[in-house]
Amino acid sequence: MSKYKSVQRAYLFWALSIFGLLGFHRLYLRKRKTAVVWMITLGLFGIGAVADFIFLNWLVKRYNMIQKLKELQKEILSTEQWREELARKQKYEEAAYNRDKEKLLKREMARLRLKLKLGREVERE
């Protein structure tokens, strides 16, 4: 199963859960606690189900951005470890390349975090 979620599939789960009342779309997005609340209260008495229909696209994008941040963090850690290993072996040119790669990854992480914080698209410079 892909770690990124699809907007179309989220809307399909929304429709299959009696138009959001049962919260299957929230389970799909790994929001287990709110999914249980949706199941118990029938989508917060229908209000939450309607709100989810409006905001589902944003919820999926937010989930995918968080997954991308996790990937970048793992890649930064592996690049750091590899750079340190290269420095120990006195392969300084390759270590410098990995340091530059690490800087680029950290910039991308900062851009994604800003995007998440602002809740909207941030243009690349």
Account of the protein in words:
This protein has 125 residues and is mainly α. 78% of the residues lie in helices and 0% in strands. It contains 5 helices and no strands. Helix 3 packs antiparallel against helix 4. The model has no long low-confidence stretch (mean pLDDT 88).
Topology, element by element:
Elements (H helix, E strand, L loop, with lengths): L6 H10 L7 H5 L3 H14 L1 H42 L3 H27 L7
Helix pairs in contact: 1-4, 3-4, 4-5
Short summary:
The chain has 125 residues and is an all-alpha fold. It has helices spanning 7-16, 24-28, 32-45, 47-88, 92-118. 17% of the residues are buried.
Mean pLDDT: 88
Order of helices and strands: HHHHH
Low-confidence sequence ranges: none
Q: Which band does the percent of strand residues land in?
A: under 5%
Total number of beta strands: 0
Main beta sheet strand tally, sense and closure: none
Share of helical residues: over 70%
Which term fits the overall shape?
elongated
Q: What class do helices, strands and sheet pairing give?
A: mainly alpha
Radius of gyration: 20 Å
- End-to-end gap: 33 Å
What is the tally of helical segments? 5
